[in-house]
Amino acid sequence: MVTVAAGEPMNIGMIGVGMIGGVLTRKLVGLGHQVFVANSRGPGSLGDFARETGAHPVSVREAAKAGEVVVITIPQKAVPNLPEDLMAETPEGTVIIDTGNYYPVQRDGRIAELEQGLTESEWVQKHVKRPVIKVFNSIYFVSLRDRGTPAGTPNRVALPISGDDARAKSVVMALVDSLGFDPVDNGTLKDSWRQQPGTSIYCEDLPAAEVKRRLGEMGTVQTPQHRASAHAKRDLPW
Questions:
Q1: Is residue 173 within 8 Å of 145, Cβ to Cβ?
Q2: Does the predicted model carry a pTM greater than 0.90?
Q3: Structural domains of the chain in order of their starting residue, each with its CATH number
Q4: Higher confidence at residue 3 or residue 109?
Q5: Residue 136: which of 8, 52, 6, 21 has the closest Cα?
Q6: Residue 222 has what pLDDT?
Q7: In Å, how far are 27, 50, 64, 145 from 141, measured between CA atoms?
């Protein structure tokens, strides 16, 4: 059983080193964590990135069992390409983070379960067969890189966090705070639709009070109208 001591450096597996994964790796290494990075092309393709950041290049399977936290930060369409038994050797209690978003037109193609209302991270959770926490999907990578500030800073940018495991969520909330953002509890993984692309808090860089207000405005039930409105506004933020 993996345990996480508050404020202590962690071993973190990072599956994907694109825009979000790259920023997270740099910031987490800067905070003293050991980060084990992986991509679909293998560790040999990550030499330059590892030398630049101080991260450790490994295989996807090695990243999945690397430590206390594993971050999955890959395009939605790539999730089914992960090994079916990816988490077979991942220790019990490892915190699994999903940062992904679904862009059916620009990148991912249509995924039937998501079109019918399953949340993006519930879908990821089905594939990896472990509980996941949704976070870092609702912020543009430039803001993640540049807008972190110390706790207590007025109008500090807040990030919503969704998940069903209270212990894992508490670990993630502390991690978000250490990266310079106010964590806001967005409820269960089923509630994570409220932070998906097309919603009123997506890539808006809002303070915690406004994030909470807008989450409240959205309510607790994702209606067909919510889905239609969000799908109409979905777009890659760059």
A1: no
A2: yes
A3: 11-233 (3.40.50.720)
A4: 109
A5: 21
A6: 81
A7: 12, 19, 23, 6
| Cα distance between residue 186 and residue 107, in whole Å | 26
The residue among 80, 178, 92 whose CA lies nearest residue 135 is: 178
DSSP state of 30: H
15 in Cβ contact with 70 (< 8 Å): yes
User: Which is nearest to 100 in space by CA: 188, 205, 16, 41?
Assistant: 16
CB 62 within 8 A of CB 39: no
Instruction: Give the Cα separation of 143 and 165 in Å (integer).
Output: 27
Residue-wise pLDDT for 118-175, tens only, equals 999 999 999 999 999 999 999 999 999 999 999 999 999 999 999 999 999 999 999 9
